Amino acid sequence: MRGLSLLSLGLALVLRATGAPAGDQPSVALTPLPGKVRVEIGGRLFTEYLYSGQPRPVLYPVMGPSGIAMTRRFPLERGPAGESRDHSHHRSLWFAHGSMNGEDFWTEGGHSGRIVQEDFRIVAPDVLETSNVWRCPHGDGVCRDRRRLRFQVFPEGWLIDCEIVLLAAERDLVLGDTKEGGMAIRVADGLRLGSQGAGGRGVNSEGATGPDLWGKRARWVDYYGEIEGRMVGVAVFDHPASFRHPTWWHAREYGLLAANPFGMADFGAGPAHAGDATVPKGQSLRLRYGFFFHNGTPEVARVEAVYRRWAAP
């Protein structure tokens, strides 16, 4: 991989951002390390992009502006006593889908596919680009993708802007209608919604809350609650240019929050296969989402205003 070749040459590549969306904000630093890229803001850990030793690339850990872990530790490492251990394929923050030409890339195991990074580049002080191939259990490639991740500092919080272009490189690509997929985060247990025995709350851009978030269309969804005595939250944004905006949400009270524009039948938005999407050979499909980590409630963090600023042309 190009990233590994950079390391083998002993190149210590650390790029620092000189700008921010507004005000005098701390700088962003991207540092390539074996199997991962470390992201720091003002010298503090924000996240690490892990591309080796995982069934798919993931971002872990993810620390909010207060230094609080915003995603569940399991299964990437041993978490605190009592941490939930369901759904071992929910790895912090990731993108996957459960039906890619009939192959499952959402779950894990011998019958599931893998997303393998082929290359990465740091193309700007706060931007990481990667190239990946989606491989069936028997090794054949189903499709490819290109990803662009930008790590941003806003006065109200920290944001990961994720743009993914799925490429039907060798054959038509059919993304099947299933709720099992999307741009996803498994939040820390303290952000799970109230019916799960936690104090978390959820709200979307249209005013729906709690269990009514699941399967609904919205521009954004925010999970927030108290962790370590601090009110913190994460809002997941769907960009207006993303496929089938505003997307549907696989938003579970136990802590999964996924933007999923393909699960229409599962979400009750159409008949069987209504959400299928075919990408003809040689063409592509573009998705773009944001993860905004903030302190305070959505109102205090001005989530709607941040969304509009992020989504503006």
Describe the overall structure.
The structure is a single chain. The chain is globular, with a radius of gyration of 18 Å. It has helices at residues 2-8, 303-311; strands at 15-16, 28-33, 36-41, 44-50, 58-62, 93-97, 114-124, 127-135, 141-154, 157-167, 173-175, 181-186, 201-204, 220-227, 230-238, 248-251, 256-260, 277-279, 284-295. With 313 residues, the protein is mainly beta. The chain has one domain. A nine-stranded antiparallel beta sheet has the order 1-2-3-4-5-6-12-17-16. It is built from two helices and 19 strands. The protein starts with a helix and ends with a helix. Residues 1-22 have low confidence and may be disordered.
List keywords for this structure.
single chain, mainly beta, 313 residues, 8-stranded antiparallel beta sheet
